[in-house]
Amino acid sequence: MSLTDALPTVKLNQRAWHPNVVLLSLGLVMLAVIWLLNPVSVAPNRIVPGTSYGMLDAIGLPGALLISLLISAMSGLALFPSRTNYRAMLTLVMIVLLLMPFGLMVASQWLVDPALPQSRLSIGAATWSLLFILLLCLVELRIRLGLTRLSTTLLLSCVGVVWGICATFWLQSLALVQEFQVREQQFWRATLQHLRLVSTAVGVSVVVGLLLAIMMRRYAKLQRVSFALLNFLQTIPSLALFGLLLAPLAWLAANVPLLAKLGVSGIGTTPALIALIAYSLLPMVRNTYIALEEVSVDTLEAAKAMGMRSSQRFWHVRFPLALPVVLEGVRITTVQAVGLTAVAALIGAGGLGTFIFQGLGQAAMDMVLLGALPILLLALIVDAGLGALAKALRPGG
């Protein structure tokens, strides 16, 4: 066999090799992050700035080599992508995520002076960056392996349980844990306020959005006016909308005794709910309207031929077929409301945003995280739960 005969085979083999550039790049970035940035910092109290420590000081040479080996193995598997290797990479990602709180425990034992009861361990840039990049890897692996949102949420829930157990029993010196312990009752009260605001706003927007979408299908002028108004409301920044509501609601409370008795005022829950409902209506109305319009005409004609009345065709045929897309609107609306409710704390509506703005005012980033992390967790749970429900209700789901 001549050399020229072998060349096409070599080219063919070269073309067949396609490494996963995304996971390979993320693996290399993780290696750079853990060695170039500091994973933790230690402060003698809440006021004094902390001292940052590198990975070798925090978890020692064995721990540093173990983490580097796991990440290097993941990067190596990315060079030869296959379903088996993707599963192995998912296992490595989960192992690193589960090992991270134990690394913080080691750093706490080595770096925090037990003679200083007010000393605290704060999570550094390397740890946050590593956690963020690992979640990006998990997103890529979810797509490659075809994992459902529900299964991904269960995996993250297992990680969250391990982190929660470690924080409860062995990470008492962690600054975030100390902030929670000092404000535990306030935290749960703010969480309930946050959930109450979100559920009320979403519930009202679902009912109003469904009724408005049904009416828009009958009246074309109402459709144009409604979408124009709802699109305009989306362009107003949330803080500006809260400010615009303050004066008229305060005037109504001062001049209409009944509204004042009902608790209407320029600040507090009332303007927060009005603003949240206003922002929630557009995705709800748009998804509901499109879902109802896209139901097959042939299906409706078949239902009519079977003797179904107009109301029966709507509730027994059109609406059930449109329900998965309607639920997508509910998912988008709820996730958006979970985030926007944090801003409502600025006008005295309460919620988890209270910790965010108090922490920013006091330059206490751990207090900011005490409010931001539960909001992120709530958004992920809502997105995964409603997304899985919508997928299950689709034909063949």
From TrEMBL:
GO cellular component: plasma membrane
Keyword vocabulary terms for this entry: Membrane, Transmembrane, Transmembrane helix, Transport
Domain (ABC transmembrane type-1) ranges: 191-386
Family annotation (SUPFAM superfamilies): MetI-like
Transmembrane segments: 21-38, 58-80, 92-111, 123-141, 153-177, 197-216, 228-252, 258-282, 337-357, 369-390
InterPro entries: ABC_transp_perm/SBD (IPR051204), MetI-like (IPR000515), MetI-like_sf (IPR035906)
Gene3D superfamilies tied to this protein: MetI-like
Keyword Lipid biosynthesis among record annotations: no
Domain of life: Bacteria
PROSITE patterns: ABC_TM1 (PS50928)
Pfam families named in the record: BPD_transp_1
Record's subcellular location: Cell membrane
Membrane topology of this protein: Multi-pass membrane protein
A GO biological process held by the record: transmembrane transport
Family of this protein: Belongs to the binding-protein-dependent transport system permease family.
Protein name: ABC transporter permease
